[in-house]
User: Which sequence fits this backbone?
């Protein structure tokens, strides 16, 4: 018993440290950028906003920058990171494969096609692009699930293969749209959208995202112990009393809602959903009950940090998807070399 | 008190694998399922376990219809020990065993202290209490099988299904595991249904034997009545002798090796 308590308190420790670091990055990010705001002022303004004393009508210039530009952007980045990392942990556990990422069921290719359609349609605003991306992301996963189900036995392998099929088809359609797109206006817009970034952040967008991401995160956190059992494979999970044909679509739906909404808001942010779950597993152990919250917190912190770099490295903004991949991939390589045997084989 | 299977039929597509099988698995005894490769042993275990749905026939467990029972209820009657478990994630032994408590937990629940107590007792019973802190990845094949048995015990079910639980194990581990299974059956009154390749192991550890031939039950009954040279020869299609030893034990021999 005592060892179990010790391990649990060690886990709480690493969750606490990860949370503190992420919170630190959060506060720091508010001050960073072209228009620098000193941390002391950030703290005061943040306090005013939280306690409701902040009045946008009478606010000073730094306060308006912070409230209308930085805060929504930073919240969007944090939500995106948490959603992608959480969904990554879920899918890696559910598909019994540490190389799986949140878009294994086709959500990203679906959203990308939807966004390209939105960009090409005349009179499309950024809201219509996002709605298109969101709908097509969900549609892609539904199609994947449908194909797997029709092809007798919705086994894990069938789901992954159906995901490959659907992704390939949506990517072909996307290529076609790129080909017919106007090369001076629309094509760059599509390409830039696909690279991902948080520059479209606004309060209405963040509020809309809260409605999809927070419930999804709650479901994933509440069921994270069951994920351990699901990760044993269908036959064992069923023998242990899990209704796999009910729980799995439920969890896929929760994760898809999260990922589709973040992808439609920020484009494809590569690697987060693959690498962060690994790091969380190394820190918190194989038990998904413990690694799920750590993964979400670290995902938020990692994406925030990458967005800070995207905003500050050069005078122009670098698409954040480039940075997450450029930093994530080598770091993953380093982890592989260093050995991660304690968390998975 | 028994699992009663009647006129069970099942096929993968047009190929019928189980063709009207009927048999009984009594409580508190070890029943071995013998048969050649492809005779339907694993399919039958998966049907009883509700992993596969039979096309027709009935399965009742202590008088209750198993085919219409929800998954979670079924897991309170039947625990399952697979042939081998390929773990992808390095769960701790205790964490794996406590998963056996899942049938008694809600969707959002975590194991409580009482669940860990049951898991500890289960580990004690199969003699792996000292492995509780270890990772499933770093223990031996025999120890892993004991972990899976402990997990099944933590389910506190009246029946235990095992699919070739010893086929990957060495000689001493085979006998070690089967002795424990028989002890569990005796001490806890658990009815065990175990698919098995080696008829000698069935002879040594089973109370009842079911002989499965091409999806039908060829013979069923107590070991001493069913395990005859004639039946075994028919079942396996090779010359077989059951030899009594001076110790009172019996051994199944075939001439095939030295013909």
Assistant:
């Amino acid at each position: 018993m005592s060892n179990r308590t010790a391990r649990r308190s060690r886990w709480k420790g690493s969750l606490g440290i990860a949370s503190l670091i992420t919170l630190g990055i959060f506060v720091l990010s508010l001050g960073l950028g072209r228009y620098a705001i000193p941390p002391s002022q950030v703290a005061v303004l943040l306090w005013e906003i939280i306690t409701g004393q902040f009045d946008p009508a009478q606010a000073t210039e730094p306060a308006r920058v912070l409230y209308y530009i930085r805060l929504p952007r930073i919240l969007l980045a944090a939500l995106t990171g948490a959603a992608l990392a959480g969904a990554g942990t879920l899918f890696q556990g559910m598909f019994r494969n540490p190389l799986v990422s949140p878009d294994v069921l086709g959500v990203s290719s679906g959203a990308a096609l939807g966004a390209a359609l939105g960009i090409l349609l005349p009179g499309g605003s950024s809201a219509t692009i996002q709605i298109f991306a969101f709908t097509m992301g969900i549609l892609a996963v539904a199609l994947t699930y449908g194909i797997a189900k029709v092809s007798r036995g919705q086994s894990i392998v069938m789901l992954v293969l159906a995901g490959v099929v659907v992704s390939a088809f949506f990517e072909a359609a996307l290529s076609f749209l790129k080909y017919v797109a106007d090369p001076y206006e629309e094509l760059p817009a599509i390409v830039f959208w696909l690279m991902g970034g948080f520059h479209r952040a606004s309060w209405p967008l963040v509020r809309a995202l809260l409605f999809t991401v927070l419930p999804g995160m709650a479901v994933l956190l509440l069921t994270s112990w069951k994920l351990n059992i699901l990760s044993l494979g269908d036959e064992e999970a069923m023998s242990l009393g899990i209704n796999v044909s009910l729980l799995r679509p439920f969890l896929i739906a929760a994760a898809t809602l999260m990922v589709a909404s973040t992808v439609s808001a920020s484009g494809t942010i590569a690697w987060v959903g693959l690498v962060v779950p690994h790091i969380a597993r190394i820190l918190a152990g194989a038990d998904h009950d413990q690694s799920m919250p750590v993964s979400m917190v670290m995902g938020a912190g990692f994406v925030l940090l990458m967005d800070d770099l995207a905003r500050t490295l050069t005078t122009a903004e670098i698409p954040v998807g480039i940075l997450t991949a450029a930093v994530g991939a080598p770091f993953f390589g380093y982890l592989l070399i260093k050995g991660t045997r304690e968390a998975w084989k | 008190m028994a699992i009663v299977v009647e006129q069970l039929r099942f096929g993968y597509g047009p190929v019928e694998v189980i063709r009207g099988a009927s048999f009984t698995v009594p409580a508190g005894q070890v029943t071995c399922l013998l048969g050649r490769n492809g005779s339907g042993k694993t399919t039958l275990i998966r049907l009883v376990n509700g992993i596969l749905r039979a096309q027709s026939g009935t399965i009742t467990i202590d008088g209750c219809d198993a085919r219409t029972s929800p998954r979670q209820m079924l897991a309170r009657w039947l625990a399952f020990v697979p042939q081998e478990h390929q773990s992808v994630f390095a769960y701790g032994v205790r964490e794996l065993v406590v998963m056996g408590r899942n049938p008694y937990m809600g969707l959002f629940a975590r194991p409580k202290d009482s669940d860990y107590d049951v898991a500890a007792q289960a580990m004690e019973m199969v003699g792996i209490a000292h492995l509780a802190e270890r990772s499933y990845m770093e223990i031996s094949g025999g120890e892993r099988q004991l972990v899976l048995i402990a997990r099944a015990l933590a389910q506190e079910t009246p029946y235990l299904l095992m699919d070739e639980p010893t086929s990957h194990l060495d000689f001493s581990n085979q006998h070690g595991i089967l002795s424990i299974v028989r002890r569990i059956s005796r001490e806890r009154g658990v009815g065990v249904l175990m698919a098995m390749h080696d008829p000698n192991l069935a002879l040594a550890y089973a109370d009842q034997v079911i002989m499965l031939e091409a999806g039908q039950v060829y013979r069923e009954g107590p070991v001493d009545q069913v395990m005859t040279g004639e039946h075994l020869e028919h079942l396996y299609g090779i010359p077989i002798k059951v030899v009594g030893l001076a110790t009172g034990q019996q051994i199944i021999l075939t001439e095939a090796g030295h013909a």
